[in-house]
Amino acid sequence: MPYLSPREWYATLPTAHVSAGALLTDDRDRVLLVKPNYRPYWHVPGGTMEPGEAPHQVVVREIAEELGLRIGAGRLLVVDVVPPNPDMDRPMLHFTFDGGTVADPSAIRLAEDELDAFGFFTWEEAEARLSPALAPRVPAARRARERRETIYLPVDS
User: Residue 31 maps to which CATH number?
Assistant: First the structure.
């Protein structure tokens, strides 16, 4: 095999989409979810990585854009992989960070061009509102937060 320059070699590697979100709760330990206007199910707040961004920066930017909240990306709670599907040709690597507690929910300013609603839900209600592919993030994030660990959710889990 001939020698490849670094640029050529990297071009041969598989690629993936990358997204990140924040587990945010209120003072009653309810989970904050958002309802995108372009999907039929609810989501943990967050979004996809832009060029030059790191996952923790995605969280800070997306929460500011979607909800008008200024947060820091706390501990990494969950890393999971959504396999390719008919709408997505590559796997999606997703990072869920601890966004802490929303002290004043009235400070939330919904980005109405992207989101229809937000709400705080019990852990069980939150899990039930997410798509089947994303639902495991909620109980995993809860366990990770409680145990102060990071959980990896492989594709086959």
Answer: 3.90.79.10
